UniProtKB/TrEMBL annotation:
It comes from Antribacter soli. Its cofactor is Mg(2+). The keyword Hydrolase applies. This is NUDIX domain-containing protein. PANTHER family: GDP-MANNOSE MANNOSYL HYDROLASE.
Length: 188
């Protein structure tokens, strides 16, 4: 068995210690995600893949698991710093603007991630870097890029959440204070 992967059994996983097995056998965690928008209405997005399905690739927002004892806002700020090298404060975040539960397969396991999304505006943009990526992220993340909603719609890869391009357009001009709840979405 590949030690890096740790196996797909209930006791071990390559996903990390924040993924807990629920009563239905599905690994679950809470996550904070950030839609980073520049002054041109473009979003800083990450493209990644699953090592078990290297031919499949998708775009998504910066973010990740909420550590034990960490608030959603603190997790969002930590993920921005680790994944994109972007240092912001709680005052720089809007929201939460969106919630959803994503159900997907990753590392040969079925996972459910309960996500809360924030918006961060960086009018002058930001040059992202991968200096804070973990070994797992280096295995599965391919690139970070600024994309407009139109560019996101035109590219050939999957997008999660599926409505991300619409969300970019809706939030580029400002947030109306309404939290959108998408419910459970199957990211497959």
């Amino acid at each position: 068995m590949d030690e890096r992967r740790g196996g797909a059994g209930l006791g071990t996983t390559s996903l990390g210690p924040d993924w807990k097995v629920g009563p239905d056998g599905v690994r679950r965690r809470r996550a904070a995600r950030v839609l980073v928008l520049d002054g041109a209405g473009r979003a800083l997005l990450v493209r990644g893949h699953d090592v078990d399905q290297p031919e499949r690739s998708w775009w998504f927002t910066v973010g990740g698991g909420i550590d034990a004892g960490e608030s959603e806002v603190d997790a969002a700020l930590r993920e921005l710093r680790e994944e994109a090298g972007l240092v912001l404060t709680a005052a720089d975040l809007e929201g939460p603007v969106l919630t959803r539960s994503a159900l997907f397969d990753f590392y040969a396991e079925t996972c459910q991630q309960d996500e809360v999304f924030f918006v961060a505006r960086v009018p002058g943009g930001h040059e992202p870097h991968d200096g804070g990526w973990t070994d797992l992220e280096r295995d599965v993340l391919d690139e970070m890029r600024w994309l407009s909603a139109a560019e996101l719609r035109a590219q050939p890869f999957e997008v999660f959440p599926i409505s991300l391009a619409d969300l970019i357009e809706a939030l580029a001009g400002g947030w109306d204070g309404t939290v959108r709840h998408l419910g459970i979405q199957h990211d497959e």
